[in-house]
Amino acid sequence: MRRRALLASLAGGVATGAAGCSSNGGSCGTPPATVDRPNAGWPLVGNVPTNTGHAPVGPGPSDEQWATDREVRDREYLFGYFSTPLVGDGRVYTAMRDSLYWSESMADPGHVVAYDDEDGTEAWRVELPRLAGGSPALADDRMFVGDTSGTLHSVSTDGDRLWTHDLGSPVRGCTVAGDHCYVVDDSATLHAFTLGGERCLYRDRSGALDGLLGGTSFQVDSAPAVDSSGVYASVLADPEGSRRARLLAYEHDGTQRWSYGFPISRGIPNTPAVVDDLVLVTAGGEIHAVEAATGERRWRFVTGSDTTGAPASDGERAYVGAKNLYALSLADGHEQWRVVNEAVDGSFGYEHGVPFIARPAVTDDAVYLRAGAFDPTDGSRLWGDLGRPESEDAATAVFGQRPLVSPAVTADALYLAHQQRGVLKLA
Q1: Which fold, 7-426?
Q2: pTM, whole model, 2 decimals?
Q3: Which residues contact 326 (CB under 8 A, 6 or more apart)?
């Protein structure tokens, strides 16, 4: 189902203009220039449309309040990976999603599940034809989630189905900005819809000369970042060949402003983040800071790990997890501090132990990593525990006991998804 585009359009460095886009149309207008950072909820995987993972305040020292389970009496077993919890109006939401590394899971049905924020009891669930392809998005009285069959779903916060669109390729993460929902599918096509389901933007990476010189395919595992300056999406081009991470910038009328690329040996680019005039993108063992206006690189930092998580920022520093958690100067990319990973060497799947690959949640006073909090100025531990694998054979620890998806915070609670235990609330 993946589209193909000119190999020439994916050559290294920055390419400007609208090359590689066809069958396009529409405009959703420009979202508000000022975006509130919610304090009582966490509506998007990165909290705000710019995907910075930044909230005003978060909880202090916290204990577990409740935890869900994959099995609920008389209900179907929840198969798949728990997405980052979304929080709003007394409910906590998650979607059961696939792993791109185990493609056979894409044939299984998925679910969107709502829990009561007070005690963690299941309020409702909606079955999807396939596992979710990425993280959902919450907006007012409805949420949006795409599945790996290529369908985008809108579901009310009461669990009613509102509308669907068949996009033709696995649908990845969703971002709501203003009155519109933006998604990128696995063909690297950008879509946007009104909250009521009317399509207002469609930009396809394939062109009239599709297939010339062999073309290239795409793989996507991210939500777009959106602000008043444009829409930014990260994709993996030619996953079976040259493997280039691409950061694509679009105007709000769908015109491609620029394309920035770099080779990676492993993984898929993560959800980008926009901070003022910079776009942050991670892939493989690197984080790149790119000028939003021009696509020129301002700085690059190499983590020394094969896998790097999505970036977060408080406007002064960029925070990125790999084997360790790094705090980098937003101005020049210099390391300011790190939280050293003390996981057991030789953990399953990682040469140097269980990595900190989830995007941290960031507030003005703390950086939240797993079930702990750190001072943003120097990285000193404020409270909490990062945990350790229990044995050298850490397959269960890597994929079960560790919250490998990004946390969510409100003023008084921290929410995590453990792939074995389910969703947890600490307060």
Answers
A1: Methylamine Dehydrogenase; Chain H (2.130.10)
A2: 0.88
A3: 301, 303, 319, 320, 335, 337, 338
